TrEMBL record:
Belongs to the methylenetetrahydrofolate reductase family. It catalyses: (6S)-5-methyl-5,6,7,8-tetrahydrofolate + NAD(+) = (6R)-5,10-methylene-5,6,7,8-tetrahydrofolate + NADH + H(+). PANTHER family: METHYLENETETRAHYDROFOLATE REDUCTASE (PTHR45754), METHYLENETETRAHYDROFOLATE REDUCTASE (NADPH) (PTHR45754:SF3). It holds the Pfam family MTHFR. Its EC number is 1.5.1.54. Pathway: One-carbon metabolism; tetrahydrofolate interconversion; Amino-acid biosynthesis; L-methionine biosynthesis via de novo pathway. This is Methylenetetrahydrofolate reductase. One of its GO terms (molecular function) is methylenetetrahydrofolate reductase [NAD(P)H] activity. SUPFAM superfamilies: FAD-linked oxidoreductase. Keywords: Amino-acid biosynthesis, FAD, Flavoprotein, Methionine biosynthesis, NAD, Oxidoreductase. It comes from Rhodocista pekingensis. Its cofactor is FAD. It comes from the Bacteria.
């Protein structure tokens, strides 16, 4: 077939959306507004994060089950190893199975930040709980013993900050696959070539599950750079350049952010990537715009 014109939106892409459990009434409202805008895009699944150290156990459960019940979209619960025994984690998983949740995003987790602000995101200072699952691969195996969950795990195109080496990190991903993971969702990245190089290395290691790029639409460039710094995510100079001078003009910044994300996704799509996972931060606007440009359109009537 002749090549498609460059500007024609791709077809047949699948997307998934990640949310975090809301803390306040106001945040709850914002979350549901976002869900009602994003659900019509018919995502393959949505997922709800688990706060550092299990701090959102109840809220994650309540949010995941409510989204699945209200929208009918398969909802995945994130679950981590931090600060809990195996028995406690197994009980959380069993409660998910009993509530009809069949998909878990299994993670090691990071220690909660210490009062001096160190630790937390990026994972410095992690200590396995003495009676717990030490690493995500152990958690995947444990979950499979509890029930036949669909299990997604994390992967790190630019290498996890605590990994002894890039090879070690790939071996770790391989262990997660061998334990039963059927999909790996990537940490966000700003250089799509980093993802493609990682995909090649993973394939060379015999890792044959889908690797789904995690896309973080940039709402606040300074914050994105700060978060990226903690997770080994390089910010290309061209990107810093693009966002320069836009701090005081949020609308312009949003247009730029949407364009950047669309170009990154289309670049990956041309390399055969057909699924994208969006870190929505519970805000729909940018993600809806990006999906629209990627040819992902409403399939269900919008909720009343
Ligand atoms: P692991 O796969 O266990 O790897 C962690 C590190 O340990 C790696 O450096 C690995 O190479 C190394 N390692 C693994 N096994 C061994 C071993 N036997 N010996 C020595 N080193 C080893 N965090 C949350 O708290 N809640 C969430 O909801 C959440 N959701 C996330 C969703 C996605 C898609 C991603 C990418 C991350 C998420 N995180 C979440 C963050 C995640 O918990 C951290 O990135 C964490 O530091 C690593 O988790 P992991 O599951 O990749 O750990």
């Amino acid at each position: 077939a002749p090549p498609k014109p460059l500007l024609e939106p791709p077809s047949g892409l699948r997307v998934s959306f990640e949310f975090f459990p809301p803390k306040t009434e106001k945040m709850q409202e914002a979350l549901w507004q976002s869900i009602h805008r994003l659900a019509p895009l018919d995502p393959a699944f949505v997922s709800v994060t688990y706060g550092a150290g299990g701090s959102t156990r109840e809220r994650t459960h309540a949010t995941v089950t409510a989204i699945q019940a209200e929208t009918g979209i398969p909802a995945a619960a994130h679950l981590t190893c931090v600060a809990a025994t195996r028995e406690e984690i197994d009980a959380v998983a069993r409660a998910y199975w009993d509530a009809g949740i069949r998909h878990i995003v299994a993670l090691r987790g990071d220690p909660p930040p210490r009062p001096d602000g160190t630790g937390g995101l990026g994972g410095t200072g992690y200590q396995p709980h003495p009676g717990g699952y030490a690493y995500a691969a152990d958690l995947v195996a444990g979950l499979k013993r509890v029930a036949d969950f669909e299990i997604s795990v994390a992967c790190f195109p630019e290498v996890h900050p605590e990994a002894r080496s890039a090879e070690d990190d790939l071996d770790n991903l391989r262990r997660k696959v061998d334990a039963g993971a059927c999909r790996a969702i990537s940490q966000f990245f700003f250089d799509p070539d980093a993802f493609l190089r990682f995909r090649d290395k993973a394939a060379a290691r015999g890792i044959d599950i889908p690797l789904v790029p995690g896309v973080m639409p940039i709402m606040n460039f300074a914050k994105a750079v700060e978060m990226g710094g903690k997770c080994n995510c390089a910010v290309p100079a061209w990107m810093t350049d693009l966002f320069e001078g836009l701090d005081e003009t949020p609308e312009t910044r949003q247009l730029v952010a949407a364009t950047v994300a669309v170009e990154q996704c289309r670049y990956l799509e041309r390399e055969g990537v057909k699924q994208f996972h969006f870190y929505t931060l519970n805000r729909a606007e940018l993600t809806v715009a990006i999906c629209h440009m990627l040819g992902v359109r409403a399939k269900r009537p919008p909720a009343a």
